[in-house]
Amino acid sequence: KEKAELQIILEYLPKQLTEEEVLEEVKKLALEINAVSKSDFSKLMPLAAKALKGKADGKLVKAVVEKILV
To answer: Is 28 helix (H, G, I), strand (E, B) or coil?
Structure first.
C-alpha cells in the first residue's frame, strides 16, 4: 500500500536534474557573476540554490558549487 502511495506522489514531483545538468547550470551562473575562486562561494551558492530549488538536492548543488570554484 505504501509503495503504491509513494508511486503516486513521485508522479507529481518535478524531475530531479542529474549531476551533469546541475554542473552545467552552476557553470552558467558562475560565468554570469564571474565567480572563479572559493571566496565567491557566498555569491554563487545562494544563486544556484534559488535557481535549482525543487530541481536538485541542495547537497548536490553545494558539492557542485564547491567543485567548480578552485
So the answer is: helix
